[in-house]
Amino acid sequence: MKRVMLTVAYDGTNYHGWQIQPNGKTIEGILNRCLSELLGEHIEVTGASRTDSGVHAMGNVAVFDTESSIPAEKISYALNRSLPEDIRIQKSEEVSPEFHPRHCASRKTYEYRIYCAPFPMPVKRLYSHFTYVPMDIDLMSQSAQYLVGEHDFKSFCSTEAQVETTVRQIDSVQVWEERVKSRMEDCGDGGAEGVDQAGKEIVIRVTGRGFLYNMVRIIAGTLMEIGRGHIAPQEMERIIAAKDRQAAGPTAPACGLTLVKIEYL
Amino acid sequence: MKRVMLTVAYDGTNYHGWQIQPNGKTIEGILNRCLSELLGEHIEVTGASRTDSGVHAMGNVAVFDTESSIPAEKISYALNRSLPEDIRIQKSEEVSPEFHPRHCASRKTYEYRIYCAPFPMPVKRLYSHFTYVPMDIDLMSQSAQYLVGEHDFKSFCSTEAQVETTVRQIDSVQVWEERVKSRMEDCGDGGAEGVDQAGKEIVIRVTGRGFLYNMVRIIAGTLMEIGRGHIAPQEMERIIAAKDRQAAGPTAPACGLTLVKIEYL
Fold it and tell me: What are the distances in angstroms from CA A125 to CA B11, B33, B41?
């Protein structure tokens, strides 16, 4: 018997999230089915992060135990042949039988993307949240720094969630802007006024030791309110202290969120 | 009667290209239908670039004439309400009746994206060409410089194409790399070997005055051969001089190509 760890990437657009559900396609469900067929035994994976419906991943992690003689490193190649094209194993490797993807200490990195322009950009629509309301990156970046460190993030946790503690540690929050160009210049024969049609993609990159349910999306929703000038940056301190979901901004839409990587410490 | 110019963005994945066809959904076909319904008159747009099936655009251009009293700038808002979400007008404006999107001198910018990693990345699959064969950016960038200037690009034109001249001017070709991270670090309890799973996205950005049929995709295919070491960078000079399609590399797949912008001079 050996324990195998998979680094799993997927486009969450067409899935009801990671976790198996009575109805609806899930990442976990597809992995269990394809692995069981491939290895000829009943396989159930354990995931590191149970991402919500519509959330994407470049590096989620899952482990499973198998009696198979196929070398762990080869499983990625064989499994990718039977997986749909919106799920791809990035790596498969043997880990110690004690390794558990949620209990083993880790650092997770998420990115939340916001496409900010007068009109949506079709090639951005699946992986960025669109808004035409302008945002000030500096205000977002300033206020984001209040989140760094160990805090009780109760204000950033969906109330449904049952957890023993809402204290978490955020290692870093970076906010930057990526310009998206589709510019019209002045047209010689009296056409376009040369208005800049460029949109901007705002990226919020959060790294921390474990996150609460919807935490990154609530952080993104709160930073958007601050970027729009609806909440002052220094208010972030009060929002954290309130330990009340109502104090924070709305939960930002799933499509903008991508689990970038999980590093085990 | 007024002439209106549209800046049109689309995700080409689900279309048989720009140009109307007897069978198959096209960008031009959808624009004509939605504009005719919106304005209550028969509208036929004229496009600047007839992009191929599967090619994307952030800023293609189309013009049409209308008797409508709706201000040109307002048409974008109204039209976007009836268009499918994978087509979005970025701007609408009145232009002079003489303005023609193909005859009026312009500078076009295309980007070709290549996602280079051991395995495909689902969130990249629709807008980047995937390859697991490593490529040397420096070799690609060096050889790309031979393309800059006015040349007979017959070697970079699909033979089907009927054109009076195959001489074109390329203003610039930039090749750069964008790192895509989904890294596994060492796992405390004897797991991952900390192999870097990061893929890289190679971007080839070409700006020029008009392009031949498939020209950018053949340039990309040739640069890929050079990046893989199959062709020496200085061979690019010979490939141009040959004026023979057979001398250049293969036509790179459509999905990696995006028409970024058209600037009228």
Answer: 9, 23, 31
Q: What is the pLDDT of residues B231-251, one digit of tens each?
A: 999 999 999 999 999 999 999
CA distances from A192 to B5, B63, B65, B101, B103 (A): 8, 12, 16, 12, 16
Please determine, for the modelled complex, whether the ipTM score is greater than 0.85: yes
What pLDDT does B198 receive?
A: 65
Q: What is the CA angle B148-B152-B155, rounded to 5?
A: 95
Contact B96 A189 (CB under 8 A): yes
Burial of A9 (0-12, 13-18, 19+ CB in 10 A): buried
Please spell the DSSP secondary structure of A127-153, one letter per residue: TSEEE-S---HHHHHHHHGGGSEEEE-
Q: What is the pLDDT of residues B83-131, one digit of tens each?
A: 999 999 999 999 999 999 999 999 999 999 999 999 999 999 999 999 9
- CB contact (8 A) between residue A90 and residue B197: yes
How many Å apart are CA A164 and CA A161, to the nearest integer? 10
Q: Measure in Å the smallest separation between the Cα of B24 and chain A Cα atoms.
A: 20
Q: What is the pLDDT of residues B202-228, one digit of tens each?
A: 999 999 998 999 999 999 999 999 999
Residue entry with tokens 């921390």: A208
For A212-246, give one letter per residue: b (16+ CB within 10 A) or e.
bbbbbbbbbbbbbbbbbeebebebbeebbeeeebe
**CA angle, A25 as apex, A71 and A126 as ends, to 5°?**
95
Which residues of chain A from 198 to 257 reach within 8 Å of chain B, CB to CB? none
Q: Does B189 participate in catalysis according to the annotation?
A: no
Long-range contacts from A163-167, C-beta under 8 angstroms, 24+ separation: A163/A212, A163/A213, A166/A212, A166/A243
